[in-house]
Amino acid sequence: MIRINQLKLPINHTDIDLRNKISKELKLNKHAEFSYKIVKKSIDARKKPHIFYVYAVNVTVNNEESVLKKIKTNSIMAIKEKKYKIPDFGESLLKQAPIVVGAGPAGLFCAYLLTEAGFKPHVLERGKKVEDRQQDVERFWETGVLNPNSNVQFGEGGAGTFSDGKLNTAVKDKTGRNTLVLETFVRFGAPSKILYEAKPHIGTDVLSKVIANMRNYLEEKGALFEFNSTVTDFIIEGDKITGVEVNNEKIYNSDVVVLALGHSARDTFTKLESLRIPMEAKNFAVGFRVEHPQQMINEVMYGKEMADANILPASPYKVTSNFPNGRGVYSFCMCPGGYVVNSSSEENRLVVNGMSYSHRAGQNANSAIIVSVTPNDFGFDGPLAGMKFQRKLEEANYQLGGGKIPQQLFGDYEKNILTTNYGDFDSQTKGMTTFANLRGLMSDEMEDSFIKGMHHFSNLIDGYDRYDAILSGMETRTSSPIRILRDKSLESEIKGIYPCGEGAGYAGGITSAAMDGLKVAEAVISKYKPL
């Protein structure tokens, strides 16, 4: 197979144009037969208004060696496609079903691989199945009445279900796990373009359907899903797990318990600490959701001519900066054409996130602009210190808005005055909002870094620090504040416990969490064989 990188074509090209370009690059005669598969597609907007699509393709052609002999460029090479392989079974017989705690990306993909390998996992999810969960979330956004176990954070699909559905990851894919994750999403209803887009996304509307299809398939293959099932205790004998307690009453026995908890399972973290399960606090970041008109972002990224033509997708962006005080300030979970959403999961605490639908057709772009925090900010009081810091911020945020999302224009934030009206554009939100002064939520040093970051980003995206950019407080759950320690076999010091995914501190998004779920499933399969 031949890989061609850096195939550049105009925005309005056709499939025939791409095919002709491939033929030309390989110096094929016009009658030569070949097939190709797009493996990556991105936008090159560095020479606006001349914008191009850039492809990487895998080509299958007869006489591959003779074709390559005619080529003298580093952008064309012979390759072998990586094929994911489920590992061989281990020697130990697993007499009970492996238990997977949590049905977010890590838990679902762990259960998926275990099921495909012949195990019949038992998935315990404290929230509801995704169809019912959607109703609870919509009701919360409309009324403010929170269901603590069925919300944006808890329920089938995890927190990523109500996000942009971004599927890009910085994790290197040496084993083919990333490809398997994307192919599995497509298998259960996602568009095939996610297999090659440089920054693939599904959108919350499509992702929820994919998750339901995935669960139905797993149930048909023998997996058991139980919703409204909170793990309230862990049964430990010596240095081994033997089961879990659910809803303070039922006991399920198993020698394998995968902890795919998600970063908001604070009561479970507290229980784990009480049982002396080895954990540690880890660094994370907090800040505000920042909204700009999507048209403004498109004009900066694509140029006004192409932005007005409306033939390119809503543009994403990524910005970052570091200051002498050691603070990093950067964008996180950027949502083109999206909404700021109330993502609370605890009574009297409020946290926001961003969300886009598949078409990214909203009027605003939003991103979390966050400031790094360390134990110097949240203290050294055990592994839950960062979690307690998050809760403190969310309580202050809730009180500031009286239960509604507190908002302020950036210019007013910098001047430390209350906002009374939006500027040239309105906020796009899911959940009720109110104006408030967001100063004082973060420390003086963090606030100073945030403001400096906003001004610095204006050097990268003209107008980013505009007076009427809308801030929404607060984004606190950018990543898990704890790490549940695991060894080279991916087990805790308490054998049979497998910490997994974002909540356990080993991932940072839908795809990386799903990949970690696969990795943990591989560890279980390599050690055990199913009954």
CATH superfamily of the largest domain: FAD/NAD(P)-binding domain
CA-based gyration radius: 24 Å
Which regions are unreliable across 5 or more consecutive residues at pLDDT < 50? none
Structural domain tally: 3
Q: Please report which band the strand proportion falls in: under 5%, 5-15%, 15-25%, 25-35%, 35-45% or over 45%.
A: 25-35%
Shape: globular
Number of helices: 14
Q: Give the terminus-to-terminus CA distance.
A: 41 Å
The mean pLDDT is: 95
Task: Specify the CATH class of the largest domain.
Answer: Alpha Beta
The CATH architecture of the largest domain would be 3-Layer(bba) Sandwich
| Sheet/helix structural class | alpha/beta
- Spatial strand sequence of the major β-sheet: 15-16-19-14-23-20-22
Question: What is the fold-level CATH name, i.e. the topology of the largest domain?
Answer: FAD/NAD(P)-binding domain
